[in-house]
Please model this.
Amino acid sequence: MRGAIAAVGVGETPYYRHGKAPGDETLLTLQAIVAACADAGIDPRDINGFASYADDRNAGHTLMRGLGTREMRWASMAWGGGGGGSVAAVGAAAAAIHSGQAEIVVVYRTIAEASSGRLQDAVAHYDMGPHYTLHGISSPAQICGLKTERLIHDGVPRSALSALVRAQYHHASRNPRAQAYGKTLDAATYDAARPIVDPFGLYDCSRENDVSVAVILTSARRARALRKPPVYLLGVAQGGTIGEAWENEPDYGSGGFEAIAGRLWAMAKLGPKEIDVAQIYDNFSGPAVAAIISHGLCSIEEAPELLTFDNLIADGGRMPVNTSGGLIAEGNAHGMGLIAEAVRQLRGESSNPVAGAETCLVTGGPQTPLLSSAVFGTEATL
Amino acid sequence: MSHGAPPADTVDAPFWAGLAGGVLRIQRCAGCARWSWPPQWRCGACGSWEMEWPEVPMEGIVHALSWTRHPFSPGMVDKIPYPVLLVALPDAGGARLLGLLDGPAEGLAIGSRVTGFPQETPDHTALRWQLAR
Model:
């Protein structure tokens, strides 16, 4: 499937503060998908496949009349309550196109508090049974804090968390879509943040937003006839080796991607050294660092030297990460915004372009039973 | 700090029933003697449906710990800051339990030895931990 499927359109609503969207999720979803169609040069009526994840409520059939869908031929959802399945939805869409079940598939995620409640409550409800709630844990932040404390114990320096967050704010400061547009974050301000759950302060935590983001996929053959340069899917993998673990994963601090990454690199026919820029799911800073490490972009031993602000920014960094600002500083579309940024980056449309970037890694939520990640590439990588 | 009682009909019911009786029980496969945590209806390793719940000493080692400093729910307001523990049980194949400390936290760190004890809450018997002497 390497290179056979391409992303051809991205669209989104603004990132509203949670609870502040001017309409319900159906409206936001239609706005994002129609914008993605305009970006691609596709008639919205021609979309015939729908994919999402995280129990998104906006099933394809609820959108058909608004889009004018001629025929829905395929619709599917990646399991899981968190963002682990974001890129798995891309993989499912690609499989549907590659197998001939659908021709033009939109992958999307929509969150509006008025329709679905607080995102953090939805994730907690999905993932946390009584062994969590009866032990003082009611937020994913607390679990991510536990895992990150273990990651730090295992050798990752706290400075890596600070560097990543500040790099993301640097990127967001130049991204007009970002919640943190125009705002950089210096080390002293980061260090002085209101403590949330150790080792996280306020700036280590992602935002909650009302937003919809959509990305359209189709075959490489169709893609070449459309408006913009296709961004090819070189590899995609989903799954996991642990299953539901109640915090019993053998390597507790890990991002968990080791097996996924192995299959990803094999399919993409490249390795972590060939990745030019990465969009790493950053529900919190620590899990994002863990995901960078478990994809092999950097080892724990290399982390102090490699995971620095200068290395993580688009302006000449060795490993630019989250060039839109990510969930922490652009806004939280449950990971879908990272997929849109991967496409923009490889088209040269990012607010923080990485010079000469031909490959982009994008990951779904780390440290979950169902993980997913993908590599996109330009025409030159085929 | 509790949010209701644990359900009585789930695969982990013997864990909560054990605590109600003052003992810690962790699941083990009767077919292959592997510790099984989180508990399962069937041992995926050997295929046995016979799962047992032996009593395990309430002795553990802190595998991870994080202080909660923000009240994520209204019930936390007068509790913060407090440490959440992930405790590994050497006598149960290293099975890990999430838990709360009830006692002095001075010197608490990853690797600390902790001792558990049952504690009555309004709706269930909880397992709490204190630093081992």
Summary: Chain A has a mean pLDDT of 96. The CA atoms of residues 14 and 358 of chain A lie 28 Å apart. The interface with chain B takes residues 120, 130-139, 141-142, 145-150, 153, 194-199, 244-248, 252-253 of chain A (CB under 8 Å).
